[in-house]
């Protein structure tokens, strides 16, 4: 399942070169060309899925374990103190390449602030109302 017009399909399957740090039957992991920090990597499934919502069960069940493996290797090899996993779905969420990918972003002691937000302060009623709406959809 590849999309001929998708750049990440081409990269994941080796048709376009990239700095690969890991490869197996289902995934290629590459370094991001516009890194948020030194060593920023992208986990790409070799099959095409536009986003989280169209991902198949096999890939979704493996991707987190792979992210942990990559993160561990980054801590040992690059000396980062932690990692952020970022995974954007939809233009409104900042997705720019519509082939599912998971960012693994090394974070260094004293590094810049990133992947952060100003916390809101919803009332208890607001939280309850929101929780009720989402919960209803999940029933
Ligand atoms: P997103 O905004 O979550 O869709 O992330 C897309 C990411 O892909 C960005 O961080 C880009 O820097 C990165 N990117 C786009 N094209 C390439 C490429 N050819 N090789 C490596 N990274 C890329
Ligand atoms: Zn693709």
The low-confidence runs, each spanning 5 or more residues with pLDDT under 50, are none
Q: End-to-end span in angstroms?
A: 32 Å
**Approximate helicity band:** 25-40%
Element string (H = helix, E = strand): HEEEHEEH
Number of continuous helical runs: 3
- The count of β-strands is 5
Net shape? globular
Please list the strands of the largest sheet in the order they lie side by side: 1-2-3-5-4
Please state roughly what percent of the residues sit in beta strands, choosing from under 5%, 5-15%, 15-25%, 25-35%, 35-45% or over 45%: 15-25%
**Radius of gyration computed on alpha carbons:** 17 Å
pLDDT averaged over residues: 97
Oligomeric state of this protein: single chain
List keywords for this structure.
single chain, alpha+beta, 3 helices, binds adenosine monophosphate, binds zinc ion
What is the secondary structure topology, with strand pairs?
Elements: H1 7-12, E1 20-23, E2 27-31, E3 41-45, H2 57-78, E4 82-86, E5 102-107, H3 124-138
Antiparallel strand pairs: 1-2, 2-3, 3-5, 4-5
Bound molecules: adenosine monophosphate and zinc ion.
